[in-house]
C-alpha cells in the first residue's frame, strides 16, 4: 500500500502513466480495425457480442502477460541465428502475426472485389456458428500478437507494474467504447473498408519488418494512416454534399 501511495504522489509516475496510456491506445488502433472488419462480416445479431468477446480477450491476455513480465522480457532474447540475423521468440511471433494480417487483408480485398466467389452453405445456422467461432479464433490470434507488442512497449517505458496495469485497462476500455462507432462507420462506408484493409496490410508488413530486425518508427506509420483517413473523410463529406445537392435539384 505504501508503494502505491508513493507512486500516486510522484509526478514522474503520472507522466509515465499518461504517456503509456496514449501509447497503448495508439497501439490498440491496429487491433480495433481488425476486430471491426472481421466482426462486420458476421450476421448483425452476432457482431456486438463478437466485438465484446474479442476486446475482452485482449484485456485478459494483456493482464495475463503482465503477470509474467519476467518471461515476456526473455522473449526478446535471441534463440537462433540465420545468415547473421538473430531471431527471438518475439521476432517469430511478430513475423507470424504480420504474415497472417497480410494474408487476411489480401483475402478480404479479394472477397470485396468478388463478393459472389464464396460457395453458399446449405445449412445457414451451421455456417453462422462456424463463422462466429472462426472470427473469435482469428481475433484471439491477433490479440496475442498485439498484446505481446503492447506489453513489451510498456515494459520498455516503465518499471512499475501498477502503471502498466492501469494503462492497459484504460486503453482496452477506450477500445471497447470506440468499437461500435468505428465498426458502424466502416460498415456504412464501403470505401473505408478498402482503406482499412490497406492499413492492415501496411501494419502486417511493419510487423514482418520488425521481426526481421528492421525498426519502422511507429510515428511514420500512424502519420500515413492519419493522412489517408483525413483524405477519405474529405471524400465522404464531398460525396454527401453532392448527394444533398442532387436531392435538392430533383425536388
Notes on the structure:
- This protein has 251 residues and is mainly alpha-helical.
- It has one domain.
- The chain contains 9 helices and 2 strands, in the order H-H-H-H-E-E-H-H-H-H-H.
- The chain has helices spanning 2-8, 11-39, 44-66, 69-74, 89-113, 124-157, 161-188, 190-211, 218-250, and strands spanning 78-82, 85-88.
- It has a two-stranded antiparallel sheet with strand order 1-2.
- Strand 1 (78-82) and strand 2 (85-88) form a beta hairpin.
- Helix 2 packs across helix 8 and helix 5 (89-113) runs antiparallel to helix 8 (190-211).
- The chain starts with a helix and ends with a helix.
- Residues 117-130 have low confidence and may be disordered.
Average of the residue pLDDT scores: 78
> Span between N and C termini?
69 Å
N to C succession of SSEs: HHHHEEHHHHH
Helix content: over 70%
Major sheet summary line: 2 strands, antiparallel
Radius of gyration: 20 Å
Number of distinct beta strands: 2
Please give a quick description of this structure.
With 251 residues, this protein is mainly alpha-helical.
Which helices and strands occur, and which strands form pairs?
Layout: H1 2-8, H2 11-39, H3 44-66, H4 69-74, E1 78-82, E2 85-88, H5 89-113, H6 124-157, H7 161-188, H8 190-211, H9 218-250
Antiparallel strand pairs: 1-2
Helix pairs in contact: 2-3, 2-6, 2-7, 2-8, 3-6, 3-7, 5-6, 5-8, 7-8, 8-9
